[in-house]
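Researcher: We're teaching a course module on how sequence relates to structure. For the next exercise, students receive a sequence and then see the predicted structure as tokens, so they can try to spot secondary structure elements on their own. Here is the exercise chain.
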Amino acid sequence: MKSASLRVTHIDFLREINMRFSASGLEERAVRNAHYTPVMRFVLQDEAKRVFRPERYCFRGSVEDWISIGEPDQLKKLTAKFLKHLGKDSLYELY
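Model: And here is the predicted structure for the students to work with:
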């Protein structure tokens, strides 16, 4: 494990190569210019039963579309099963 003194954040790195901005200025600029792409969704399949179909976006060049990652179910069960994968490499193992 790295010690606190050896850790360098992305903002610290950008600050080193561009001294015109303060660390907080760089962070504000990064947040303001960030673009987000949805990577997971739950599509309503049965409105009466409130059943949803879990999907994730596949970024492979041959696919680049939404793919199923599980059986349809109640939203509470699906979120417990799948939301823990957001922001992790395990997301891309779901199919």
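Model: If you want an answer key for the exercise: The chain has two domains: 7-35, 40-93. Residues 11 and 24 are 8 Å apart (CA to CA).
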